[in-house]
From TrEMBL, chain A:
2Fe-2S ferredoxin-type domain segment(s): 26-102
InterPro entries in UniProt: 2Fe-2S-bd (IPR002888), 2Fe-2S-bd_dom_sf (IPR036884), 2Fe-2S_ferredoxin-like_sf (IPR036010), 2Fe-2S_ferredoxin-type (IPR001041), 2Fe2S_fd_BS (IPR006058), Aldehyde_Oxdr_Iron-Sulfur (IPR052914), Beta-grasp_dom_sf (IPR012675)
Molecular-function GO terms, alphabetical: 2 iron, 2 sulfur cluster binding; metal ion binding; oxidoreductase activity, acting on the aldehyde or oxo group of donors
Phylogenetic placement of the source organism: Bacteria, Pseudomonadati, Pseudomonadota, Alphaproteobacteria, Acetobacterales
Protein name: Xanthine dehydrogenase YagT iron-sulfur-binding subunit
Record's keyword terms, sorted: 2Fe-2S, Iron, Iron-sulfur, Metal-binding, Oxidoreductase
Amino acid sequence: MADLDLPLRQGFAPDAGISQALPDDIPITLTINGERRELHVRPWTTLLDLLREDLSLYGTKKGCDHGQCGSCTVLIDGQRMNSCLALAVTKDGCEVTTIEGLAAPDGTLHPMQEAFIEHDAFQCGYCTPGQICSAVGLLKEGHARTPEEIREMMSGNICRCGAYTNIVDAIEDVMAKEGAK
Amino acid sequence: MDQSPMFETPLFETHVGSPRNRVDGRLKVTGAAPYAAEFTAPDLAYGYVVSGAIAKGKITNIDTSAAMAVPGVVQVFTHQNRPRTAWRSGAYQDEVAPPGKPFRPLYDEHIVYSGQPVALVVAEDFEIARYAASLVRVTYEAEKHQTDVAKVLGEAYVPPKKRSGITPPPKPKGDSEAAFGASPVKVESEYRIAVEHHNPMEMHATTVVWEGGGRITVHDKIQGAQNSQSYITHVFGLSNDDVRVISPFVGGAFGSGLRPQYQLFLAVMAALELKRSVRVTLTRDQMFTMGYRPDGVQNVALGANPDARLQSIRHDLIAGTSTFEDYQEATVNWSVMLYRCDNATATQKLVKIDTYTPADMRAPGAPTGLFAMESAMDELSYKLGIDPVQLRLRNYSEVDEANGKKLTSKELRAAYQIGAERFGWARRNPVPRSMKEGRELIGWGMATGAWEAQMARTAARAVLTADGRLEVASATADIGTGTYTILTQIGADALGLPMEKVTARIGDSSLPKSPVEGGSWTAASAGTAVRLACDTVRQQLFKYARGMDNSPIANADLAQVAFQGERIALISDPSRFVTIADAMRAGGVDRIEAEETAVPDKLVQARYSSYTHSAVFVEVRVDEELGQVRVTRLVDAVAAGKIINPKTARSQILGGVVFGISMALHEESMPDHNLGRFMNHNLAEYHVPVNADIHDIDVIFVEEQDELASPIGVKGLGEIGIVGTAAAIANAVFHATGKRIRELPITIDKVIGTKETA
């Protein structure tokens, strides 16, 4: 976990007489993986870039920066969302869960993480954090009941390695175990 | 137990051959696996690439003043102020470069393709670099360009210099023209595929960490750390000691990471010049400004007798390449290689167009060529009135028909049979348009796949330490292929250790020499190298064990013991054993280290060809009114020698199959030839399959023994899954609709607009 007191990016005073002034930082509060953080962010910084570049939470991936691939999926107040499409300032006060926040503090993996390993539901691993966050969000939504519905509702997350059938198997497995509880 | 003649002693297989979870799985599912753009450094600067707007011509002016005026901008690099680099274009030639003069970023004012990098803005943070990049004003003097292969077919030429490592088209056999003319049954048609861009999920990126004193550590998205290292040293005049490339994780590549991409040059240039750490990440649209699977015009002509025996095969290709390099891949060879036929000719020519040089993309050439050939075979089967599988069996060959060599193994016949059985092929009504359910036509099609089983010279090191842990290391890569896992399995079995006590290290230029990871050769090559290094460690360890005082295995030789359960035990009496720890203690050492190099057997190569094969069976459902095609069921029966890890191996094939479905139905980089540019440069308009597009895929590994393809019996799996898949889908679409679509991808317009021919 990044040091809470770590200053965000180096500041640089705009030189006098230069026209290209930068926007001012805006203070926001985010709870990230259970930790409350007071942050100063520029209005043009996406939640994705904030997580990766300022907080070193590189588990959330950038695959397109256009909301087209789902690699950057995180859970915002429990709902899955493309963090590249959200400006960080618009999420003031929100709770954000990233892939780094899914496992228990003692390192015990989330059942979805376990299922992804067991079903070999990834290859290169780059889309995987987004797939897992999306799958966790999917289960919480409770709409998907059949493999066909899982496929449809997981279609916002592209896997170029083609692990789709294993991803569906992993999600079905977790659904079945949760249903059995 | 494996008993390859190359190894002195047999191996007891606990892990090899059994399904194992990926050893890097935990890192990947927790987001802890670091990719190229995820290494940090103090005082890291961010580079953002400005892409050129024209396809051909020159830059007349670059105004960087507005960009430079943005607070936080460190420097804007252009061809006018770039630091000196090697002047010889040969210095830019990487390990897998085709013949020609490689593209040199920011070299001069000339523009040779659309999207060419024209400037790099370096700033204190990412958003500032991105914003300042938008302020760089470039003016151009455009020249007339040509990006349409079809318009320049008359200029086709045979590449004067063959690309190293690529088998050129085979010599003609017999007289295919006369035989075609005399054949009572024939088919002849033209085939096209769309240009495709690799588009791995991770965009190309490089983080260069400035270590001071002119030394850098580079984290590059690359399929071979040593390829990037040697590119950097040659281009920037550095020594291997100055440059270390560490790329432990690669977020997919599929060939786009074989050659260093331009962000590597730009990031290293900026870091050396600014003497600070720099990261350059490309955008998704810039992922369309690099190599691609080339489009081409293919012509296939087949002649046969009424008994369904092939009399003539002809396959001609004219493919695009850049103006500066002659990219070549093996496309037409497969048509001659696969089937018994006395008269066969295959030719391959190039035309120059104003794009970047095409690049190897998953099974380069094979799915392109076999889409045409296997479509033609399907068409021929209808003309002959014979089942498509039977036609292939009727012309089955036990040798490499391209050169007459024997094959190291070929269980393709079994693949046809087992695949057909699993699919239920016998229930197929051969008549097109005969199967229907609801509003959907159902089609069953099949095709053959093939890929070279190759081995490349690769070194590996094994280090066993007193704590009973083993490290195996080679400078190869894992791009999602499972290299980490299979090397761990091989190392564990070689010394009888649990996998938890074995660590595989790869993706680092300082490790023993390895070629790029590609061509499906890594498992066979790095796997053999690891096995050899471990064998040397075994021998040393055994010597210590046998020589210890009152050794329970004092009279045994190496062939009489088993390395299992962290012990060296007599095979005949496992109660007599020495633990690894005791053996090392007896030898008075705290580590045993060995480095060995796996080299392909020249004698075997002279006498044999080696291929993986597959039989692909597909069900499609076509909604004719909507023109929509769905691949609802697919069986891929693969014969690829020994399977080290059935779990990750299956994933390899699944991935290849999805790539094949994508090739058949989705992927298409759409050029606007007026602009000379690919227009759909994003993942919303460049279609790849999403989860809902992929249904039932059944992977079968056909039993295949092969002690010649590689000493560990492995043939490789990265490519074979895609080969034949697109052809099988096109054939299934014909069976469903009676429409023969000869141009990929099979999109709605083609399904609706093509006339029925059956």
